[in-house]
Write the structure tokens for this entry.
Amino acid sequence: MDFDRNAAARLAEKYESFYLYDEGAILDSIERLRKSFDGVRFLYSAKANPHPGVLSCILSEGIGVDAASLREVQMGRENGLGKHDIYYSAPGKSVHDIDAALPDCVIIADSVNEVERIQTLAAGHGIVAEIGIRINPNFSFDGAVGTANKFGIDEDTVFEKLPEWKAMKHIKITGIHVHSRSQELDGTLIAGYYAKMFELACRVQDALGEKLGFVNMGSGIGIPYAESDRPVDLARLGDEMTRLMGVYRSRLGAQILIETGRFLVGKAGVYVTHVLDKKVSHGRTFVILANTLNGFVRPSMAQMVESYTVDAHPHNSEPMYTGRNAFGFVPLADTAGTETVTVVGNLCTGTDVIAKDITLPKLDCGDVFVITNAGSYAAVLSPMQFASLTPPAQILLKTDGSTVII
């Protein structure tokens, strides 16, 4: 990916390791989605990267929040969003979290028990809570039958319970939510999933006897990680969504929501660190970096996963693991020649490895080392308390050249 090498080098003079997020790249991703999907509302999955500057940039562009916690609901409100801009969807919400979130968002019920809890809490406040229902559908993302899942309520159960839920005095079901897959690059599969979602929404609406206010399609639109990956054809996928919205317009007037997942931020970030040491052991050259597993865990996680399986995309491994060759390694120093090295971190554990026997430009102690595809599910997943080392900074490079640093 492209990144501002000058900014990375300048900041590396002050910080041993840091994330660098590019506001311009985030805004470009937002624009590409909007150009392709006319009439669709986008939600940002705040769990991907909740850096305050990143969040402010995205939400100021009219993107809503897909919240996975009470704190993420609060982040949305702190950025000026209204109740119908924030959708709180997660399994196992506590009674406290539901109660605190009720005034500030649309809660997506993830279980039968949760519907009943919302009814009880809303009754206590003397309100009618608008809610969505997360459904575990009878179809899978790729067209097979549905399977057991920790997320959502089985489709058959939803239809069985709808009459009971309609009779509840303190909830009003205004939408549905399904999220079946992340990081999909096959636009044809995504389009087929959208078509099944429109049909499901119509069947729910018919059974409910009232118009749905929203249909949350979830995410699914992936980003290319490996050099061999091909990006989703957004224009073609957007055209198919427009066609489907036209076909179902007379039956379904609901707002269509799509969660952006990592699309907005994944390629807008890099991780920058330094070479601390270099050694040769039994003929193998080791390059030791600062803060790898404990700063940016996903490359180390990739090495661990790949040592256990030959499957290029192990089932249910996102967002901890995406696939092989998901990260680029870019030394900033201009050096002559290459060498084969194993790149490791400075933790006292043998699992702190990010690449084995790869060929890179020759590196020396003090050189700046950049890892790409670090904008999403990166800092938030990394065990930064390990060994009590100084955690990496997180820096947003704004379009005017200024920085927002935490």
In short: The CA atoms of residues 148 and 256 lie 26 Å apart.
